[in-house]
Structures are given as C-alpha cells and as structure tokens.
Amino acid sequence: MDFACLWLGLLLPLVAALDFSYHHQEEMEEFLKNVAQNYTSITHLHSIGKSVKGRNLWVLVVGRSPKEHRIGIPEFKYVANMHGDETVGRELLLHLIEYLVTNDGKDPEITSLINSTRIHIMPSMNPDGFEAVKKPDCFYTNGRENGNSYDLNRNFPDAFEVNNVVRQPETVAVMEWLKTETFVLSANLHGGALVASFPFDNGVPATGSLHSRSLTPDDDVFQHLANTYASRNLNMKKGDQCKNKMDFPNGITNGYSWYPLKGGMQDYNYIWAQCFEITLELSCCKYPREEKLLLFWDSNRASLIEYIKQVHLGLKGQVFDHKGNPLPNVIVEVQDRKHICPYKTNKFGEYYLLLLPGSYTLNVTAPGHAPHLTKVTIPKKSQDFSALKMDIPFPLKGQLDSIPVSSPSCPLGPLYSNLPSHSAATKPGLFLFLVTLFHILFK
Ligand SMILES: *[C@@H]1O[C@H](CO)[C@@H](O)[C@H](O)[C@H]1NC(C)=O
Ligand SMILES: *[C@@H]1O[C@H](CO)[C@@H](O)[C@H](O)[C@H]1NC(C)=O
Ligand SMILES: *[C@@H]1O[C@H](CO)[C@@H](O)[C@H](O)[C@H]1NC(C)=O
Ligand SMILES: [Zn+2]
C-alpha cells in the first residue's frame, strides 16, 4: 500500500499535462500560476503591465536564477499573440513552458539550456484581441488589434520615418520591460503565413530599399537565426506552403522584401533594445482548429529549442577599468557593424555580441577616452551553451577615472531621417497593393 503510493507519487507529474486546446485568459493564468508554484526554484511569474481592458500581460521566466540576472547568463525572450487572432504561438509557448520545466534534470539538453540561459516567455501580448475573436477565422479578424483597435506591430517608434500613433498600454509595457533586462535574442510569434522574417521591416536607400530590401549590418547573423528556425520546420523550409503566391526560399525572408511596415516590434528591439529579434509566421491559418495544435507543437518543438540556443552565439564578457571595476555605458561593437544606436555595456559592465565564427576587430569606446581596438577570433566549433568569453580591460586615459553616467540614450525619433528618404517607386509595389486590396495582414 505504502509502496504503491510512493510509486504513484513518483510517476505523477507535478502539473497535470497541458492539453492541446485553446487556453483563454483565466485558464492560461491558472496554468502559469500552477507552474510557478510547482517549480519555484526555476520559474518566476510576473505581469509586465495591463492590457487596455485590464488583463495582465504575463511573463514566465525559466532559469537557474529566475528572479534576477546573473553575470554571464544571457537573457532570451519569446513573445506571442501580439496579433490577438494569431493563436498558434500562444499555445506553443504554453507547451514550451511545460516542456522546459518537466524536462529539467531529465533531458541533458534542456537542463544545460536552463543552466546557461534565462528564458522569458510571454504567451500573449494582446489578450484583449484574443478574447475579442468571436468566430475563429483563418484570415483577418478584429482580434488582430488591441482593445483600442490599434495594431500593436505598427505601434512602436520607427527608425526610418515618423510614427505618429498613440502608444498603447501593451506597447508601453513591452518598451518598459525591455529597459529592465539586457535581452540578447528574441522572437515574435505570428500566424497567417509560414516564414521566418528578419529585420529590417522598414528602410531607406542606405539600408537597401532601392533593391527592395532593408538589411542590418548583422545580416549574416539574422540569416543564420532565421535558418536555424526554418530549417527544422519541415513545412516552413519548403517556402511556398500557404497558397498566397509567395515563395520564400528556404522559408526565410527579409521583412522589407516581403512588405515594408512602420512601427514594428522587431526593428524596435534591434535598434533601441540591443536585442536581435525575428518574426516567426507559424501557420497559414491564423486561428486554426484546436485539433491541429498537436501537429503544430510537433513541427515547431525542435525549432523553438534550437533557436533559444542561438543566444550563445558569438562573444560575451565584461569591461573593467584598471582597478577591476566593471564599466557600464561603454560602447562595444564590431568595427564594421556599427549600430545606429550603439550597443553599450549594461550596469554590470557586460556586453553580448551575436556573431558567427570568424575574425573580428572590436571597437571599445567610452566618452572622453580614445577608442580601444582589439582583435578576436571566434572558433568554428564553439561550445554549445556559452558564447566565447572575453573580458576587456579598458585603458581609461585622461582626467576621468570613470565613464560619465550622463551618456545620452538614443532618441526615439526617426534616426535615419538625415539619410535619403523613401521613394514610393522603390517599394515592392505590387505585393503591397495586393496586401492592401485583400486586407491580408500577417506580421
Ligand atoms: C501543482 O499543480 C497542480 C495542478 O496541476 C495543483 O493542483 C497543485 O496545487 C500544484 N502544487 C503546488 C505545490 O502548488
Ligand atoms: C546544471 O546545473 C546544476 C547545478 O545548478 C548541476 O548540478 C548540473 O550538473 C548542471 N547540468 C548540466 C547538464 O549542465
Ligand atoms: C570606434 O567607435 C567610435 C564610437 O562609435 C567611433 O567614433 C570611432 O570612429 C570608431 N573607431 C574605429 C577605428 O572604428
Ligand atoms: Zn501577426
């Protein structure tokens, strides 16, 4: 009898298995709270704000130190359901949470991932939109927008043109959240197409718009990131599965090449938050029947896990002064991939640079001091769960023995406004026209 109880107790999972159905706000909250209660040492549940209608914007953090950042542990995030009627990502992230917590200490890969990474998961950025959908539809519904009828993926500051929209509570919550952590890598989960799309979503001639694309100086890394996801999703990698006449070679695309948009979240992350983000379109049908959810989980699980591991690409470390104190606000960038808002060390003096194997020259700069150039080679076969670690002693010269804290942050204006502006004739006109005509909106 006693033995039987013990045996049963060991077999029962801590949390009743999550079913493959849609979880509305209350059920989602209950699931997240149960996970947080049952896995206290590796999870932290918090709300980053409220939607227009007062629903919590939940984030569950998974990691060995879930409540706070640890030096050398990169911060990763997934955000889903920013368009409330694009529902697959929302359920996938709930299943991902379950998969991570139930495999910790059992599956060596997941255990290593949790040991080396702090993973922030936001299953719904637009709970009001999700609840507003009365009749699930594969195409557009009013659930796309938030409770004030704003498209949240048009609601962020834009680097290329003025974006005069009223910033919504969900957008403000995300912008504030981005300031609280040094996020390194992210993906934003959508539906209505099947493709991994990478920055920029908007552009000017200086970023390639005359050639119907808009590329970042980190394009090699972004292509690698998008390929990492798409190549493990058998349908996505075929590239033309949605019958919307778009062929995406290998299942990836530059956002602008597909169709330009203003005020998107991925460009905002890359430009203002030092965080590389891509947009994942996970299902041809925006709101598929729940019988399909298991298939979506099966076809995305490997991609979701492998993508998180990419947060360990490249280089990381701390910048110190001659006394060994960490230096915040020091610009650390690769010489020929300057960001329009320079990437700086955080309050612990840490930097993280996502880079593919190769040789690079780092330019380490603090205001009032001469730039410090240093060469580094990232080997082909680097470790799986850690970027190459390189601490940088920074030779402070001159009167100052510290970095002025007043180093200006990047303005929220169109930073490319001094560059030649958009020319309507250079946009991928026909597709944009079709998109407008049929009101088919994805990202
Ligand atoms: C663990 O989760 C289950 C539901 O799956 C819940 O009933 C139980 O109270 C939770 N245990 C703890 C300790 O919170
Ligand atoms: C993960 O970290 C724990 C200690 O927190 C350690 O005991 C374990 O060996 C580590 N596992 C892996 C696979 O790195
Ligand atoms: C290093 O970066 C600083 C600040 O971004 C810049 O002013 C300087 O020209 C760069 N130096 C080199 C050699 O690239
Ligand atoms: Zn979308």
TrEMBL record:
It is a lipid-anchor; GPI-anchor. Gene3D superfamilies: Carboxypeptidase-like, regulatory domain, Zn peptidases. CDD domains: M14_CPM, Peptidase_M14NE-CP-C_like. The active site is at residue 281. This is Carboxypeptidase M. It is found in: Cell membrane. Specifically removes C-terminal basic residues (Arg or Lys) from peptides and proteins. It is believed to play important roles in the control of peptide hormone and growth factor activity at the cell surface, and in the membrane-localized degradation of extracellular proteins.
